[in-house]
Amino acid sequence: MEHPDVVVVGAGVIGAACAEALTAAGVEVLVLDRAGPASGTTAAGEGNLLISDKAPGPELVLAQASLARWPRLLDELRSELGHVAEVEWQPKGGLVVATAHGDELLEFAARQRAVGVRAEVVMDPYEYEPDLTRDLDAAVFYPEDAQLQPVLAATTLLAAVRRRGGEVRAGVTALGLRPGGVVTSAGFIACGAVVNACGPWAGEFSAAVGAPINVQPRRGVILVTARPMGIQVRHKVYDADYVGAVGSSAAELQTSTVVESTMAGSVLVGSSRERVGFDDTIRVEVLRVLARKAVRLFPGLADVPVMRAYGGFRPYAPDHLPVIGPDPRVPGLWHVTGHEGAGIVLAAGTGQLLADLYLERAPAVDPEPFRVDRAGVMA
Fold this sequence. Notes:
The protein has 379 residues and is α/β, with parallel strands linked by helices. It has helices at 13-24, 58-81, 102-113, 150-163, 202-208, 241-247, 284-297, 343-358; strands at 6-9, 29-33, 48-49, 94-98, 120-121, 138-142, 146-147, 167-170, 174-178, 181-184, 187-190, 193-196, 216-225, 236-239, 254-261, 267-273, 306-316, 323-326, 333-337. The longest helix has 24 residues, at 58-81. It is globular and about 65 Å long. It comes from Actinocrispum wychmicini. Residues 5-357 form the FAD dependent oxidoreductase domain.
């Protein structure tokens, strides 16, 4: 493809979703990634599609629209691609529990219900998760929460892009902009627009092209256990303090208990958040905290071996909202980043919103809260 309409820089799930939505509308798209598809933040994710952790506000509105779109989009992709569109979709729901201050969880759920979230107060959480700790103060079940395999999701979206005539080039680094296109490690590419979907590296790319935005990396680590014997984890289960950790702006380590099983039978244990730049060191003390908290929630995990740990960087914006839209300083430059740990659930809606704005269609979600030139984002 010599002269694409749009070059998307970044082949993670957000860039892939943007490229898919654009090509579905007939836009010619070239996706570039300096490494390979889904090899960055997307590969380091758990695949959570959560409504349960979002307070009423713009992010929840986008998440609701996106979560409603995901099953429809996957059905469309299965019709188009066949077996290639397997993403391990699991609409299994999420159980949020409080080991203390249960009234706060119940109040949070009530505020969510007021804006259309299905949040069901559970009187007997052991019907949902028989192996949970008995030391619980409150529990709420969220039937809309789901899970998928993030790398498969991104590669499926990119397969649709290719099928429609788009192109994906791995090992190509976008270096800067010139009038009429983008300068890359493989030469100049003429195009009509460039989408910065670089995730945690979006701040670096934006500075390189002369339109800096305040998006920083936020580090997270996940433990993976062997298949447990004699213990079940049926849903996504997390302690209510997870909501506070997600919304925290602190740079220091934040941890909360998140436990879920995979289709392969292993158990994923999180979560941690800290701003340490691009230091990818996996620290043993962080793993110990995660393990201790997981055992507190599911005591039977104490005897389950940990197979490995992995970490990654999430794109953090100071107000915890994604950045979606055109840059007012550089014609033809768009930013789609800042989703932090919610990129998977927000991807389908984000791609649709970007396509709506690019094609000047009436957007399904109000784009105003995600503007590039809002306070604290545009440096």
